[in-house]
Design brief:
all-alpha NTP pyrophosphatase fold; globular; dUTP diphosphatase; dUTPase/dCTP_pyrophosphatase
Length: about 210
């Protein structure tokens, strides 16, 4: 529950950096969910029977993390605010129930089911998303670590002039994503200060 609560809080914070009244704007976050699902299949899954290929799990995981950003935004918007603890517990149990008790379907089929459910409800489909995680072999811990990493990097970029073009993406000859990957391996994601530690780690490496 704590991991989901943290992700929802971080999503609200990054959205408010861009638009303070983002919930009232009623953006179609659900649309980004199903389009990202389609992109994951088209770009990173072996669906083209007319040529040889293979699934690219590393890229698929990145797509799942992108979907999570849009899914959490849609969930908050559906609730009209960051859900209270009791609701978050229910949402977390809903997802964990899928991860613990269901058999995984194929990756492509799971993405298709997420897109289908999302198009039908135009809301946050948590169980369908959990089935994508199950198909990919992604635990809640892996989602949490990857999500927080991407979220904090996005916030760091915003804070250092990404919109105005002042942000430097190359640090010491390497992209910011590479520095993020190293920090994710070094830091303890179980600590309450994980997101803060990650931000400070990026700040310590960023060119002054």
């Amino acid at each position: 529950m704590n991991q989901l609560k943290t992700m929802l809080q971080l999503q609200d914070e990054i959205n408010r950096k861009i638009n303070h009244n983002w919930i009232e704007l009623d953006r179609p976050w659900f649309r980004a969910v199903w389009l990202e699902a389609a992109e994951a299949v088209n770009d990173h899954c072996d669906w083209k029977w007319w040529k040889h290929g293979s699934d690219n799990r590393e890229q698929i995981v990145l797509e799942v993390v992108d979907i999570a950003h849009f899914l959490w935004a849609q969930l908050i918007q559906d609730c009209g605010e960051i859900p209270q603890d009791e609701a978050v517990i229910g949402f977390a149990r809903q997802m964990q129930g899928v991860l613990d008790s269901e058999q995984p379907m194929g990756i492509i089929e799971a993405f298709e089911a997420l897109a289908h459910a999302t198009l039908g409800s135009r809301s946050a489909e948590l169980e369908a998303f959990a089935r994508v995680m199950l198909a990919v072999g992604m635990s809640f811990d892996e989602l949490y670590r990857s999500y927080v990493g991407k979220n904090i990097l996005n916030r760091f970029r915003q804070d250092h002039g990404y919109k105005t073009g002042e942000y430097q993406k190359q640090w010491q000859g390497r992209e910011d994503n590479e520095h993020l990957t190293e920090l994710l391996l070094e830091l303890d994601a179980s600590r309450d200060s994980f997101s803060h530690d990650l931000y400070q780690g990026l700040a310590s490496r960023y060119p002054k």
